[in-house]
TrEMBL record:
Keywords: Signal. This is Esterase. GO terms for molecular function: acyltransferase activity, transferring groups other than amino-acyl groups. Residues 1-32 form the signal peptide. It comes from Streptosporangium nondiastaticum.
């Protein structure tokens, strides 16, 4: 973006002038000035939980402000000389920064772990993407905000480490977690997806829910034109012409399935149900989830959303296998609901923490 380039050049010239005049510039000041994200409010929620309101021009809406919830480890101090690794947990469609603590025991799960848990708020239809906006780009630019602005802000002001992070998410957040890991190799030391929308271009073979249907419903949730996100997917969804691909390249860029080759080298955990609600067979406080839950059902059940998720993830794991990209996969009976996602968070937590030393 031209305006950012001009700003960076101006800041560099200013820093040089200050140095020539003998003015001392504190370490990190230039980086902070280049980052437009700003903390505008903090709310302490107990001893270990902190909600932070962040304002950025990359956030769409009248206020340009979103929250991020932090779970802080024992001994954390914003003025500490050390830093802490981070686990990013991404919400699903229609969710926010409170979802993980409100629907799971992640606060208890992370107690005693030497890591910061980062739970950012986006929008109910963010796609964890920089929106296409009919080819114009601009806000909302969620990927730019989260990884280019919020991440360095947390490193600068909340002692988040710079080189040890893992990412996980559910549904739309599962798509975001794997998309981030693929688009930024090495940034995340492990990635996990729970009922992730891993193929936005999924075409149901039997008349069920298609991938683009979720994007269209997301547009209704956010009261916006769904085409702003990635444009139109083209054939075979909104046209009968195989040559009419429209903005398919934008969809593929944001699809973990189409970017699967870039996940090589990143430890992966992929879980999903088949749309049959048979109960989790597990509850918080009991033994760890049994591997016997991963029955690898051959067919989907009746719940519409997880039925589509099942099809997406079956194709995704097949793509990983063809590429020789290893992944821990748990396919089971289950629906698109929190009890299953919490179970899989608990099951994958040792892998995620082990990857970052938390």
């Amino acid at each position: 973006m031209v305006h950012r380039t001009h700003r960076r050049v101006g800041l560099t010239v200013l820093a040089l002038l200050l140095a020539l005049l003998g003015v001392q510039v504190p370490a990190g000041t230039a980086g902070a000035a280049e980052n437009p994200a700003r903390v505008v409010r903090e709310v302490r929620i107990g001893d270990r939980m902190l909600d932070v309101a962040v304002r950025s021009p990359e956030i769409d809406g009248l206020t340009h402000t979103k929250w991020v919830r932090l779970l802080l480890p024992a001994g954390w101090d914003r003025n500490a000389r050390r830093t802490w690794p981070t686990l990013w947990l991404l919400h699903g469609g229609g969710g926010n920064h409170k979802d993980w603590t409100g629907n799971t025991h992640v606060e208890e799960l992370a107690a005693g772990r030497d890591a910061i848990v980062v739970m950012p708020e986006t929008s109910g239809c963010s796609g964890y993407s920089d929106w296409w906006n009919h080819g114009a780009g601009g806000a909302p630019a969620w990927e730019t905000y989260l990884l280019g602005e919020l991440r360095p802000l947390l490193e600068r002001e909340y002692r988040a480490g710079t080189d040890r992070a893992a990412v996980a998410g559910l549904s739309m957040g599962g798509q975001g977690a794997l998309k981030f890991a693929a688009a930024h190799p090495g940034m995340f030391k492990a990635a996990a997806s729970y009922s992730g929308a891993v193929d936005p271009l999924y075409k149901s073979p039997d008349g069920g829910f298609n991938g683009p249907d979720a994007v269209k419903l997301g547009g209704l949730t956010c009261l916006t034109d769904w085409k702003r996100l990635w444009g139109e997917p083209g054939y075979p969804f909104d046209t009968g012409d195989p040559a009419d691909v429209r903005q398919r390249h934008v969809w593929e860029r944001n699809s973990p399935l189409h970017q699967a080759a870039s996940l090589a080298g990143t430890p992966l955990y992929v879980s999903y149900g088949n749309g049959t609600n048979s109960g989790t067979g597990w509850q918080w406080g009991g033994p760890p989830p049994s591997p016997a839950r991963c029955t690898d059902p051959a067919a989907h059940g009746g719940e519409a959303v997880e039925r589509a998720i099942f099809g997406m993830n079956q194709e995704f794991r097949a793509r990983l296998a063809r590429l020789g990209v290893p992944a821990t996969v748990c396919a089971s009976e289950g629906t698109h609901t929190w009890p299953y996602w919490e179970r899989e968070l608990v099951a994958s937590f040792p892998m995620l923490m082990g990857a970052i030393g938390g």
